[in-house]
Design goal:
By secondary structure, the protein is an alpha+beta fold. The chain has nine helices and four strands. Helix 2 (about 30-40) runs parallel beside helix 4 (about 80-95), helix 2 (about 30-40) packs across helix 7 and helix 5 (about 100-125) runs antiparallel to helix 6. The protein is globular.
Amino acid sequence: STQSDMGANRLAASKKMSTYKLTYLQLRGRAEISRLIFAATGTSYEDNRIDREAWAQLKSTGIAWFSQMPILEVDGKVLTQSLTIARFLARRLGLHPTDEFEAATVDMVVDGLSDLYNAGVRFTFEKDPVRQEQDKAKFFEDLLPRHFSGLEKILEHNNGGNGWFVGDKMSWADLFFQVTIFAFSAVGANNLLDTYPKLSALYQRIIEVPAIKTWLETRPVTAF
């Protein structure tokens, strides 16, 4: 109803007025999905980018529960774990569905992309050249096509694949897809979506969303 929509809008607006501080290294890395959520929803926050020396000092205070970043401070409370932070923000700021099955589908897409992202990070930073080549081959010959094929089918099952992964509006699953593809392209893995037309079109839709486009054009340029 209109009245409940107005109530939901007032609630979202009040949550946007919370004080948010996101702390991470001077990289996109595992904080970028949260930065995109902030950008997409027009939510003000402190983008606290620190060097490794400052991180060592911060870690010694015990603020990071698992001695890891990113760290989100919201109204004096602290969260760590990148996807926990992103999911919290998405729910709070309207980028996570309220329907239980749709919410689970968003989580499924994110978890699948996270598997890919983590595998890509592993072979990119593997120090043993033999192991690196083995992991890289497995990634491109098995993991990537298996996951992209599944993601293309998930997309096609929702409005014929011409919209978003879930429902009729953009969710944080779409944003995490952009983050993951961009991260791969940044380390030289280009043209990944050439044989997945629906995913390729989705990527273009996401980066053309005005708030996302502005963020991508104005954010600090970093290697990772």
